[in-house]
Amino acid sequence: MAPDGTARVLEAGTVPRATGRSVRVSSLRRLARRRSTIAFVMTLPLILVIAGLVAWPAAWAIYLSTLNRRMTANIGLDNYLILLESESFRMIIWQSCFFAITAVLLKALIGFWLAHMLHHIPTRGQRKWRGMLLIPWVIPPALSTLGWWWMFDPSYSSINWLINVFGFPSIPWLGTPWWARIAVIMVNVWYGAPFFMIMYLAALKSVPEQLYEAAAIDGATSWQKLRFITLPMMRNIISITVLFSLIVTFANYDIVRVLTNGGPRDTTHLFATYAFQVGILSGNLPRGAAVSLFMLPILAVAAFFILRGVTRRVKEVG
Amino acid sequence: MTKEGLSRRKALKAGLGGVAASALAAPYVHGQPRVTLRCGFWDHWVPAGNGALRELCAEFAQRERVDVQVDFITSVGRQNELTIAAQAQSKSGHDILSFPTWFPAAYADQLVPVDDLMGRLIAKYGPVMPAAEYLAKRENRWIAIPAVSGTQMKPSLGRIDLLKQHARIDPREMWPAEDRAGPGAENWTWDTFLVAADKCHAAGVPFGLPMGTFSDAVDWVGALFASFGASMLDAEGKPTVVGNQKLRAAVDYMVRLARFLPPDVWAWDDASNNRAIQGGRSALIFNPPSAYAVARRDNMAGFDQQWTFPMPAGPEGRFVPYLPYFWGIWNFSRNIPQAKALLEFLSQRESAEKQTSTSAGYDIPPFLSMNDFAVWKNEGPPAGVVYNYPLKPHHNARATVAFAPAPPEIAVQAYTQGLNTGLIARIAQGGMTVDQALAWAERELRTFARG
Description:
The structure holds two protein chains of two kinds.
Chain A: H1 20-33, H2 35-64, H3 78-85, H4 87-119, H5 123-138, H6 141-152, H7 158-165, H8 177-205, H9 209-217, H10 222-250, H11 254-259, H12 271-281, H13 285-293, H14 295-317
Helix pairs in contact in A: 2-13, 4-8, 4-10, 5-8, 8-10, 10-14, 12-13
Chain B: H1 8-30, E1 36-42, H2 49-64, E2 67-73, H3 79-90, E3 96-99, H4 103-106, H5 115-125, H6 130-136, E4 137-138, E5 141-142, E6 145-146, E7 152-153, E8 156-159, H7 160-167, H8 171-174, H9 190-202, H10 215-227, H11 245-258, H12 272-278, E9 284-286, H13 290-297, E10 306-309, E11 313-314, E12 317-323, E13 326-329, H14 336-346, H15 349-358, H16 374-378, E14 397-400, H17 408-416, H18 419-428, H19 434-449
Parallel strand pairs in B: 1-2, 1-3, 12-14
Antiparallel strand pairs in B: 3-13, 4-5, 6-13, 7-12, 8-9, 8-10, 11-12
């Protein structure tokens, strides 16, 4: 077998003069026998799926964002420039970043704490708790957010009813900007923390017990074990989970749509909800595409730094 | 008996001939429809509301020998709007679709002009509501037909007992279920409204007027602005905010009125005001009769005290919020003549009355001459509760769409982003001065016209 994978059975000098047809057949056969050809054929379905469902829509969205409202002329980057001139949109950029960063941090912290607590429960009882804590994550978010909306309802909030029972005044959960922001972040954290918990729990279980035993012999405190064993061993999974969650949280739509519809005064809009409002509801698809593409550079920068860190650590370990 | 029987070849020939002959003759013998008309209508709020359209389509199908397939597409979760966008992009789907208020203009290039059809209907039934014409006409051509099903107005819906007790206003006396205005109707102005709002607020039954970005909020504030002559955009789509004294007067009024509204109105959706009047927590809302219909269906306390009556008048007249639906035919449809025939049939007076009656008076026909259907007189208790729901000559009112007369493709952006309620919220809730808020609105409106 030749290094390139072709079976060089027929050497040029030893082969009797072949007819044109047999040369074609043998070269086709050689092509089919190449490892690279086989690999390409086998990955072709995936390439087609990615090209059709990822690359083409992305390219179409980029093209769309360069058109005018009636989609009759190319206006270059004007849609982006117009958006940046809008105070409302600048506030939405800030709000999207605030929402995503705060929610991901809280989810990571709560998820880590829950994973740590679960890890120390005996295996038999752990299963029960694990199942219960995963419930928020397995309920469709549109449905669970509707439940939250009833609890935050401006006029008939059940949470306010409880607060009033204890003699405190009602909270305008969805009526004032900061309470509305807190409400959407709260629901996102409630929904997403179990994902972090299960990932961190898996990571915790993979940390060798001998490391903790050795640290205990050296007299390490619980904090030192966490700081110098657990966190370094979980670094990669934390990075990947944070990146994944950051992407999903930035692109969140249903929670804001159900809870606040972007209000009050657009202060809870995210890129996705605003893109829908501008693109679909206002009939300005190109500008809606531009809004949704604003996420791309932000997430690309985050992905670059996080993945670079992961790759470096993998190389160090290797 | 001859020995020569039927050979296999002959039997096969005869069989094939028979099949071919019957296949060719079948459409003529059985009158089977050869055209399939696919319609996507709005899924009505009123449960029985779809029944009328289904029956009318079946009647048309039988009469015209056309196969009519009807889908009812819900507006819950904006499914209908997403369907329109998807079909417009893929250039495939239904022949006829129901288009919400702003959508005909957005897809004007892909809709079949219906001037011929509208010409015949206008000749027969008289003028269409100007607000519907504003939305359904592009470059002097009708691009969609103002629909009956789904079209609504949002006049005042008040509790007779609460308004009498706390504001000393009797809406039934002012606006009886007759073709006349009663005593006090001439004083039904925004000034009277403000005093009544103050009194009802003090009595714990504040007027339930939403101030968010949902359509109920944007519509009623739009009607109030119109009655002050306060437009935020001119007919060319240019902002007319800064230095607009009429707008400033309307904004000042709204800021005063906001003090007497429930504190949570900034987060209300289109159902919150319904719940407020149904639960007896509000003395007045602006809404179609759906709030009343649900209260009656569920036998809620005080449903028989509800009364529909016109909006208050302002310095420039009386305006009622109008939110129409339209029927449009895609230009990629292969059945345009049949689609036009069906829509013409659905727009006839008898068909319109059937739709309005089935929806308990909710659906408003586009022709002013049709505002006298019996259903509005007969609904109750109280008898005639929705008599004043459609426009009547003695109301001296006009239907209005928020942000008209700007070109729809610009107005819709201000509408969906709730720029009028947002303006008030920035002052009443956000602490901006009137000047700051007006300057903000002007800047935002400028971006809508660009690109």
